[in-house]
Amino acid sequence: GEEKMRTIKLVTPISGDLDAPTQNLLGLGALAAELGAEGVSVHDLFARTGVAATQLEDAQARISHRQRLAIYRNARRLAKRSDIGLLAGARQRISDYGIYGYAMVSSRTFGEALLFSLDHVTMAGPAVRQISFRTDGTTAILRSHGIDSLGDVLPFAAEFWRSSMTALFGHVLAFRFPSKRMVFPFSAPVHWRNYERMFGCPIEFDA
Q1: DSSP string across the chain
Q2: Do residues 28 and 157 touch, judged by C-beta distance below 8 A?
Q3: Average pLDDT over residues 30-36
Q4: For position 1, what pLDDT does the model report?
Q5: Rounded to whole angstroms, what are the CA distances from 39 to 70, 78, 85?
Q6: Which end of the chain, N or C, is more open, meaning fewer C-beta atoms within 10 Å of its C-beta?
Q7: Angle of helix 98-105 relative to helix 154-173, nearest 10 degrees?
Q8: Dist. CA 181–CA 123, nearest whole Å
Q9: Could you give the angle at the alpha carbon of 91 between the alpha carbons of 89 and 97, nearest 5°?
Q10: Is residue 205 within 8 Å of residue 188, measured between CB atoms?
Q11: Which residue, among 124, 137, 123, has the nearest Cα to 180 in the 3D structure?
């Protein structure tokens, strides 16, 4: 018979103290590279965030949630293209995530890789309070909760996170990650057609 919907994991990647230096900079190199291709320097990307450009190469460096959002705001302001979050996320490589990425790709099954990624999701730098993973029959559902602290950065953060994870999962599988549907709680941006190209599935906005 069909399996009932069940929650397999609920993780809380963000500390209650939004100024606590609890997150590393994994994945932000792709954002710096995409902006670099537009002629924007890492120093400008990190300006007025309290984060030094040199920390990008330091696996031990830690930043706070507010600092991550400040970097996102800089990226959005400096970018020439509105879809910078999607483009930057698509640049992600397994090596950008160090041990985290290599552990995912060496998992026996994709299910194991996904559970590992959720167990260590703080390393991947999500900007939401909670992530739940559940199944409904043969469909896996990943959902982000607690987006209240994102404010105006929500669309950018969602684009960068979803695009980054889709790229990483694709590298783990060695083929395009098969998304069935994506749902976003904000209005369609001007580059909304790029979502379907990027994710290869139906997209719902204001949902």
Answers
A1: -PPPPEEEEEE--S-S-TTS--B--TTHHHHHHHHHHTT--HHHHTTTTT--GGGGG-TT--B-HHHHHHHHHHHHHH-SSTTHHHHHHHT--GGGGHHHHHHHHTSSSHHHHHHHHHHTGGGG---SSEEEEEEETTEEEEEEE--TTTGGGHHHHHHHHHHHHHHHHHHHHTS------EE-SS---TTTHHHHHHH-S-EES--
A2: no
A3: 97
A4: 45
A5: 20, 10, 16
A6: N
A7: 50
A8: 25
A9: 80
A10: yes
A11: 137
CA 22/CA 42 separation, integer angstroms: 21
What are the pLDDT digits (tens) for 77-118?
A: 999 999 999 999 999 999 888 888 899 999 999 999 999 999
pTM, to two decimals:
0.93
- For the stretch 49-77, pLDDT in tens is 999 999 999 989 999 999 999 999 999 99
DSSP 1-25: -PPPPEEEEEE--S-S-TTS--B--
For tokens 């969602």, what's the residue?
Answer: 158
pLDDT for 185 beyond 90 = yes
Q: Which pLDDT tens digit goes with each residue over 136-146?
A: 988 999 999 98
